[in-house]
Amino acid sequence: MSVASLFDRLEPHLLSVSKPIQYVGGELNSVGKDWDSVDVRWALMYPDAYEVGLPNQGVQILYEVLNERPWILAERTYSVWPDMEQVLREQGIPQFTVDSHRPVGAFDLFGISFSTELGYTNMLNALDLAGIPIRSADRTDEHPVVIAGGHAAFNPEPIADFVDAAVLGDGEEIVLAISEVVREWKGEGSPGGRVELLRRLAASGGVYVPRFYDVSYDDRGHLAAVVPNHPDAPDRVRKHTLMDLDSWPYPANPLVPLAETVHERFSVEIFRGCTRGCRFCQAGMITRPVRERSIETIGKMVDNGVKKTGFEEVGLLSLSSADHTEIGEVAKGLADRYEGSNVSLSLPSTRVDAFNITLANEFSRNGRRSGLTFAPEGGSERMRRVINKMVTEEDLIRTVATAYSNGWRQVKLYFMCGLPTETDDDVLQIAELAKKVIAKGREVSGRNDIRCTVSIGGFVPKPHTPFQWASQLDVETTDERLRKLRETVRADKRFGRAIGFRYHDGQPGIIEGLLSRGDRRVGRIIEEVWRDGGRFDGWSEHFSFERWAAAAARALEGTGVDLDWYTTRERDYDEILPWDHLDSGLDKDWLWSDWEDALAAADGSEVEVEDCRWTPCYDCGVCPEMGTEIQIGPTGRQLLPLSVV
């Protein structure tokens, strides 16, 4: 039977909350469907505020892929701000979708995409507001199946008690496969209830259902085993890899927000995956292999997106966009197409060794030169060898000299603090590098208004990377190193005012590290934090380290482990890791070998793992394990001579 809209109950309270427009819906290109005309219904969530969640490409793509099928309905929901949460709780209004304002609890499936682990408390809040028991074991046949996806789903163990299932990897094909399973099960009269539905999903081999796996610990509190407790549950659950991106040119009907969002642009993913081999980078490891979109498809997607959204900025996105084999042709073709218009092109941060001034000039042909961003990551060459980012100081200085001499006035450099084997001196080298960048900029440009912004993030070890065994730097040492760096920069009267300095303290990184490499016991901590008021932990003004530390002490009492055990402790080869039963395609022995290479590089050895797009295979395991292969150009196609309408 039909499910009524909650908007009549919601509307009288909109003027009492901040940014009410985020709850109204009706965005350009959004989809509305009749509830009774479909067989399967999805509520999709990005667990953050509307302004952060709406631009998320993952949710937008799944929203469109699902709604293209006439028998599937998909609607969106986002985290509500605390003032709206208060209204919902006082008025008894449940968590709702923005498309038709239907209650989330009425849908068949509730899919949540996590790009960061700090969204876990927002998930619990949404479940509770929706009237869905936060623990999967307490749900009945009347509740939606809660499914986690996104990069954080590659270790869903900390939220295993709260989700019914998790999906690893690309979502376009698996959401349709899941929908087919649900459709068939419902068509048969829903035999066996939700347990039977979950069994069917687990039996497919591509959906991880935590309830079908038992976890045990040894006397020391270490993980002893994760084993299936159901004959239809596989020993290992594999990730999904979408091949031939040209066949999936989404989003084809991108959403245009009603309120200001963090990214006011139309974005096209020009390729997926990265094989540069940066040892800290989870995204680069878990999205292998590289799969490029052809120049023809990119041209069509950009043209379509500009026409359907009205956005004046187009972002060409990937993990390393300048590495697309036809990026020069893409840039020139698009710059030619939009020259003289209000449409500008942008790239995310560019690798120093992939930058060239011709490319930069094409992307700024319409006169917009807001600045260039490079990511050396490590302050010293020793650290860059450790992380396999083989960029020399000379490379960086030569690159910024080219930029400054061609009219750019500002460069942003991104680094990390807390990398394995790092010392105080490695971090202080960031200051010296920034000073040399300013000096070179002044020299080649003949101007004194040269700026360099240094942005520093804390290193967090991630699953399925060579650094998954590494210890994390403690809060006190992190903050002390950053203090010394800041003082070093400010003390230099020649360069201090020309160098901007942005950084995060060590506390949020430690909690992210806890959630990143945690096991099922960490779920108790997440629940305690949420019950204690934890919301929007990715926002500095809402994050409370003290709340997390206190919850960890209470939840882990008597387990033999504590917050430091999960974060600042180095693992060894024999330790069973919470995600070992989840298959990203990467061979664990290869990851360990690369970890050993990193330690050897710290001692001066020249150990480089080159990009396997251009070299023989390094046997990481992904291609043979997953039955995939690298897909790169040149494709022989051309950017279409798009006609002016």
UniProtKB/TrEMBL annotation:
Gene3D superfamilies reported for this sequence: Cobalamin-binding domain, tm_1862 like domain
SUPFAM superfamilies: Radical SAM enzymes
Pfam families: Radical_SAM, Radical_SAM_N2
Radical SAM core domain segment(s): 260-498
Endpoints of the signal sequence: none
InterPro entries: CHP03960_rSAM, Elp3/MiaA/NifB-like_rSAM, Radical_SAM_N2, rSAM, rSAM_horseshoe, rSAM_sf
Protein name: TIGR03960 family B12-binding radical SAM protein
Species of the source: Nocardioides panacisoli
